[in-house]
Structure formats: C-alpha cells, structure tokens
Amino acid sequence: MSPPDPWPVDEEEHLLHCRVFDVHRDRARSPRTGDPHDVYRIETPDWVNVIPLTPDGEVVFVRQFRHGSREVTLEIPGGMVDPGETPAEAAGRELREETGFAAGRIDHLGHVRPNPALFTNRCHSFIAHDVRRVGEIENVGAEETTVELHALAEVPRLVREGAITHALVVAAFHWHGLRGDVT
C-alpha cells in the first residue's frame, strides 16, 4: 500500500498573530475525494531543549510555572530559536538565561516535531557537557525559573513517578538514551 498523497492547498488565511506563534487557516483538498476542508496550523519558530550535565554527572533542571497546564513543572532548559540564531546557539543561550550555567561543549542529539498535526516547527535536543555555574539566572519577559540538580541516573525514576511530564523533555532524554556513547 502506498503512503497518502499531500493535500493541495487552495487558499491560505492568516488568522491571528501572537507573540510566539501565528495561527493560519488553510482550505485544503483531500487528494482521495477532492473535497475541501478547513485545516488549521500554528506557525512558530523552532524550539530547543538542552540536557545540561555537570562534571559530577548531575543534570541541571529548571522548575517553572506553565500557563497551559497551570502547574509548576520540572524541565530542562529550553525555548525558541531567535531569528539569525542556530539551534545550538539558542541551546547555549537558553541554558545561560534559565540556569546561570554555561557548557564546555554542546552536541546535537536529534529533533522531533512537537505536534505535526498543528505545529510547523521542530524541537532540537542537545546535550551540554561540563556545565558550570557562571552567573545568575537571567529570566527574560514572563519567565521565572529556579534550578535543581538531580543525578542523571535518577531521570528514569522521575519520569516514571510523574515528576517530569513535559513530552519534549522526555523526548530529549530518549534521544540521550539512544546515543549510548554520550555521557
């Protein structure tokens, strides 16, 4: 059986501009039936997240309030890739801003599409080696983070017990697990 064909887009409409994303409505036709359908997509810059490892094998986590879930979460540093910035540069910047730590080296682990049904972007996961505290947290805008250190070996338990619930954080640690050569 062959894969489905792409849906031709007959019409595009920009519906809403928000600070961190744009909402679009497309009028697309089913290649199977020819019927038109309104579909919606959220256009946003690529995102990054970074697993910061200290020389002692601890992960530098951040706790922050998330407005979508209305909960304080345990996550790794991350955020949007700014215009003119590479994902690796964004990972280093987000690490410094949200934790006050900087990396000796940052390696790309892989990327995922956060939700290809709606979002246009990718989330790139990185591992930061030999991170050390170099300054204070520099939260910008509405961000408020605190730092926690946990042993890398504790991460599977933190996920199983529900202390880490952010899907993109779990994906980053999965990438890390697939790269058994990375410590």
Your description of this structure?
- With 183 residues, this protein is of the alpha+beta class.
- It has two domains: 9-43, no CATH class; 47-178, Nucleoside Triphosphate Pyrophosphohydrolase.
- It is built from three helices and twelve strands, in the order E-E-E-E-E-E-E-H-E-E-E-E-E-H-H.
- The protein has helices spanning 87-99, 155-160, 167-178, and strands at 9-17, 22-29, 36-43, 47-52, 58-66, 71-75, 78-80, 101-102, 105-112, 123-129, 132-133, 145-151.
- The strands form four sheets. The protein has a four-stranded mixed beta sheet, with helices on both faces.
- The longest helix is centred in the middle third of the chain and has 13 residues, at 87-99.
SSE order: EEEEEEEHEEEEEHH
Give the fraction of residues assigned to helices: 10-25%
State the shape.
elongated
CATH architecture name of the largest domain: Alpha-Beta Complex
Instruction: Please provide the count of β strands.
Output: 12
Beta-strand content estimate = 35-45%
Low-confidence stretches: none
**Head-to-tail CA distance between termini:** 41 Å
Widest sheet: strand order? 7-4-10-9
Structure summarized in a few sentences:
This protein is of the alpha+beta class.
Task: Give the topology.
Blueprint: E1 9-17, E2 22-29, E3 36-43, E4 47-52, E5 58-66, E6 71-75, E7 78-80, H1 87-99, E8 101-102, E9 105-112, E10 123-129, E11 132-133, E12 145-151, H2 155-160, H3 167-178
Parallel strand pairs: 4-10
Antiparallel strand pairs: 1-2, 2-3, 4-7, 5-6, 5-12, 8-11, 9-10
